[in-house]
Amino acid sequence: MHFHKMQKVMASSNAGRWAGPLDLDGLFIREIRGMTIGIIAYGHIAREIARLASAFGAKIIVCNRDGERKAMGGFHLEGTGDPTSSIPSRYFSTSKASLHEFLGECDVVVNMLPISEQTHHFIGKGELCAMKDNALLVNAGRGETIDTIALIEALESKGLTNGCPGTFKIGGACLDVTDPEPLPDNHVLFSMENVIVTPHCSWASVELYDRVVDVLETNKRKIEAGEGALNALRGKGE
Q1: pLDDT digits (tens, 9 = 90+) for 68-101
Q2: pTM score of the predicted model
Q3: Nearest to 218 by CA among 76, 72, 80
Q4: 166 and 103 Cβ atoms separated by less than 8 Å
Q5: pLDDT tens digit string along 131-170?
Q6: 104 near 77, Cβ under 8 Å?
Q7: Maximum distance among all Cα pairs of the chain, rounded to whole angstroms
Q8: How far apart (Å, rounded) are the C-alpha atoms in residues 58 and 34?
Q9: Among 6, 34, 43, 166, which residue's CB has the most CB atoms within a 10 Å radius?
Q10: Any idea what DSSP says for residue 93?
């Protein structure tokens, strides 16, 4: 939506007006093909993002805790994700130097981090400065992992855009999670042309509970056989 300027297109449509070339700045669509999409934290959802983005011709790189390639564990829906971790062309660690190198290569940064003491404000002013000035930041992890005040400042920054890192400026953000959450009415993020906000609903597939039952049935069989459960948070698990 961001790269197709759907905010402007829908604003014109809702006003009952056809959006002309001047409204959309001529040749305006940025294609995913050839972009570098970087994913922070490479769990099950992140691996499906990688599979889908790579199908459109994007180059995938990943930032995880130690920068190592790891096979996927837990419940796996056949035909999805990246079980062998073969899609990313390169892995980076969460050390400051490696993280900033990773961010500087990305046209799109997809944040899938959970919240913890270690990940609170994981993306702050320094990380936003390390990103390209036309990069898109997507957050489908947890809102508190990004410093909202710093994010707004980077989104509001003016000046020439050259597609390079090193300035406190980014091209846009797509936020399914925010801090605070929910955002208060009339929050500045709602009114920014380069921001898309959705109300923490990316999980809300109509197929969700069918898959929950699949996991439960699989784990029932495994536990009855004396094996560890899939996706276990504690106790005996795989």
Answers
A1: 999 988 888 889 999 999 999 999 999 999 999 9
A2: 0.93
A3: 76
A4: no
A5: 999 999 999 999 999 999 999 999 999 888 899 999 999 9
A6: no
A7: 66
A8: 5
A9: 43
A10: B
Cβ atoms of residues 6 and 19 within 8 Å: no
Burial-class residue 163 by CB neighbours within 10 Å (0-12, 13-18, 19+). exposed
The two tokens of residue 143 are 């809102």
Q: What are the backbone angles phi and psi of residue 105, rounded to the nearest 5°?
A: -90, -15
For 33, residues 6+ apart whose C-beta sits below 8 A from its C-beta are: 56, 57, 58
Handedness of CA 66, 60, 41, 115 (dihedral sign): positive
Gap between the Cα atoms of 128 and 32, Å rounded: 21
Letter string b/e over residues 10-43, b meaning 16 or more CB atoms within 10 A of that residue's CB:
eeeeeeeeeeeeeeeeeeeebebeebbbbbbbbb
CA-based nearest residue to 109, from 82, 68, 138:
138
The sign one gets for the Cα dihedral 112, 116, 121, 127 is: negative
Cis? peptide before 184, omega within 30° of 0: no
**Strand, helix or coil for residue 209:** helix
Non-local (6+) Cβ contacts of 154 within 8 A are: 125, 128, 129, 131, 168, 169, 170
CB of 237 closer than 8 Å to CB of 228 = yes
The token duo for 44 is: 């099950």
Instruction: Round to whole Å and give the CA distance between 148 and 81.
Output: 30
| CA angle, 37 then 38 then 42, to 5° | 125
